[in-house]
Structure formats: C-alpha cells, structure tokens
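ok here's Broad specificity phosphatase PhoE:
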Amino acid sequence: MSDSTVVHLLRHGEVHNPGKVLYGRLPGFRLSTTGEAMALAAAEWFQGRDVTHLVSSPLERAQQTAAPIARTLSLPVQLDERLIEAGNAFEGLRVGVGDGVLRAPQHWWKLRNPFRPSWGEPYVEIAARMLAAVEAARDAARGHEAVLVSHQLPIWTARLHVEGRRYAHDPRRRQCGLASVTSVTYDGDRLRGVSYAEPAGATDPDAVPGA
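and the structure:
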C-alpha cells in the first residue's frame, strides 16, 4: 500500500438564493439547477480516482453535492459536523457592498475585529475542527484518497492553516470557487503539498452570495 494519501476538500455547488442573503447554516437552502450540474461535474472529475472515503457537511447543499459522487463511486456518504459552514452573525441578511446590513450602524460593532473575526466563529476554531476532520479522513483512507464536502470559509481556513499562512484575509481573494477541489496530499502524516482544481469551471464573479 502506498504511503501517500490525498484528502480532497470539495466546496458545494451553487445554491438557489434569490434573496441574495448570507444563508450560512440556515436550513432550506438547496442547490440551484446550475449547482446540481456542478455536482455532476465534480462527480465526473472524481471518477476513476482512488477514492475510498466520502464525507459531507450535514447541510443540505453539501449532501446534495456529495450524492452524485456517492453514486459514481459506489460509496456511502458519512456526515461530519466538523465540516459545517462557519457560524456568522449576519445569517439571513443581505451583506452586499452598498446595500443591506453593512449600512446599518447597529451592526457595525460586529465588525470591530476582523482578525478574529468578531462577526462569527473564530478562525482558530474553524481551523481546529477542519484539521481534525481532514486528519480523520486521512487516517480512514490511508494509501488512497478521501473526499470531504464542505463550504468556502472552512475550506479556505483549513488551507491557510496547512500552508502556515495568517487567517485574516480579504474574502474576495479566496481561491475556493463553487464546486472547486482543494487537495491536501500527505506522505504518512507529513504534509507534502496542496493543489487546487475547478471541475465545474471558474465561479462567476456575480454569483449569488451565501457560503
């Protein structure tokens, strides 16, 4: 058996979000028609790879993204709460530049510390739970590959952690498009490298916000 293991962090596909709110962990947000096509593209990308372990965030959009992979690879989908979206005080609100919640002074105090961040789950806590999920998947798929379906900020925070970069960042500069794959490769328990792919193509800059 090879000592090389790859853990793929797959972001879910586009979500139906006509209100353009930050949906976070709220229930009832499913993939759009485009998002379903993205999930199929991701499943096709994984076809033929040595994936032996498939895990999803418990949120519906992540499970929908995992479903075609499960069918394609004949694998069960396990759920892991550690892969869930980051907590955010602005859930259910519009947060676009120039409109919505950020124009209301009563919300400005939540922005007081972007390094933590003060508006949601601390980066250090996101990194800790994501790293635990990644290492558990690495151990379960030793010598093979694992797929973890999660969300943009948790995946990006995990990448910042394993690459030894600071957590505070500009959200517009995250390399984590819809249905993208961030792959973490290990030799034994030692990190060998991180790579990135976009099986469904680049995300439209005007794509609906959310997570």
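+1. The helical segments are 33-46, 60-73, 123-140, 152-162.
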